[in-house]
Amino acid sequence: MKRKLILSGMLAVLIIGIVIGVSIFKSRDRNIPVKIITATDIHYLSPSLTDYGSIFRETINSSDGKVIRYIDEIMSAFADEVISAAPDILILSGDLTFNGEKASHIDLADKLADIQKNGIQVLVIPGNHDINSKTAASLIGDKYEYTDSVTSDEFKELYWDFGMKQAESVDPYSLSYLYNVNSDLCVLMLDTNAYGENFVQDESYEWIEAQLKKAGKEHRKVITVSHQNLFAHNSLLSFGYQLYDAPELLELYNKYKVKLNLSGHIHMQHYMTDGVTEVATSSMAVSPNQYGIIDFSNDKFSYSTKSVDVSAWAERNSIDDSVLLDFSAYSEDFFKNKTRAGEALQKINLKDEEKKLMAEALADINANYFAGVPTDKEKYAKGIELWKKQKGDFSFNYINSMLEDSDTDYCSITVK
Q: Do residues 415 and 277 lie in contact, with contact meaning Cβ atoms separated by under 8 Å?
């Protein structure tokens, strides 16, 4: 009888061991597909901070083409699309708010909570607009009144549930953290803003290297994420955009075979490769109001873009607003109107029709460039030729920098 009990016990232990072994094996399965959505530079402004009156229009109309008038609607439409697409992760790489307003952070965090309730892990880092902002303000009537921003500690508290809470490790010196997706993949969210702009603190490098080394030992691929750029994506737009310590960071990433870095900040859709491939996703607040979709499987990343379909969202919600119902056209026109070089052209002694050709060339080439799509140079040949006669003018130099890089579609790439 005892022998039977012993044998039964041994059999039970064996079965349990097999079950546990199978369970562990399954948890470490490789080549599990992962879907990620990434967006950046949302520049969300809480509707509670503006009545969209005269000071709001003056402020926005003198800015860089961000469609802040409809940023709440863009964000609502985007949230619906994310929930419908059901990715494993949503990554937001900084400049979450217009100018760091506390009320904007609170309202945005509520929207992110709705996304996460649908089983989608949200990961955020701050941008240079988000913390200790001296330009956080309400825009009501004709008054521009400064309002509360957030400190690093307040940012951490507000967004704790969106990455840091679930992190494998959090940097003790900043808001950087490492999130493990599965046995194949992890995401290093790098804060370059909490205690100074455009660089990684010296104290953080030891922590970063430890995370990369650990990921390598566990045979996990690493996606790194920063707000500012590793590379100078435009020859005229590097200072203030590229990380000051980019060479040191790039050396570290190449040492540990990091293949993909996601960034934003520059507002344009672009990518560059030097060992690491960096994809700079364009600002969601700027036409064509797009975000990135990443499919990871078999150790490769496939990246593509998609524009937020604000018009479809408005129709679904029975919103009778002519702008929202034809939003992509409105957003594109709004952006182009900011880059027609009106004041510069007024000083040039040319016929009106020639100035028009120059204005259209600059606006259209710039719109294509920021959207990450190629430009048909022949279509704008006359306008470009007229700009060439203005050598030394910034607008000509800027057009030239875009045309040097106008033949590639930067909206999709595969990284192995």
A: yes
Mean pLDDT along residues 59-72: 93
pLDDT number for residue 345: 83
Give the CA distances from residue 175 to residues 187, 189, 246, in Å, rounded to whole numbers and listed in that order. 14, 8, 18
* 42: exposed, middle or buried (Cβ count in 10 Å: 0-12, 13-18, 19+): buried
Q: Are 258 and 271 in contact (CB under 8 A)?
A: no
What is the four-CA torsion angle of 362, 364, 367, 371, rounded to 10 degrees?
-130
C-alpha–C-alpha distance, residues 63 and 61, integer Å:
6
Separation between Cα atoms, residue 337 and residue 64, nearest integer Å: 10
Over residues 289-312, mean pLDDT = 97
- CA-to-CA dists, residue 387 to 140, 341, 362, angstroms: 40, 11, 9
- For 245, phi then psi, to 5°, come to -105, 30
| pLDDT at position 4 over 70 | no
- Is the pLDDT reported for residue 354 higher than 90? yes
- SS3 assignment, position 225: strand
Q: Is the pLDDT of residue 408 over 60?
A: yes
Residue with tokens 């100018």: 99
Q: How far apart are CA 291 and CA 289, in angstroms?
A: 7
Q: Please give the single-letter amino acid code of residue 295.
A: D
Whether the CB-CB separation of 87 and 142 falls below 8 Å is answered with no
Are 249 and 227 contacting, i.e. CB atoms less than 8 angstroms apart?
no
Q: Are the CB atoms for 101 and 134 separated by under 8 Å? A: no
pLDDT value of position 25: 31
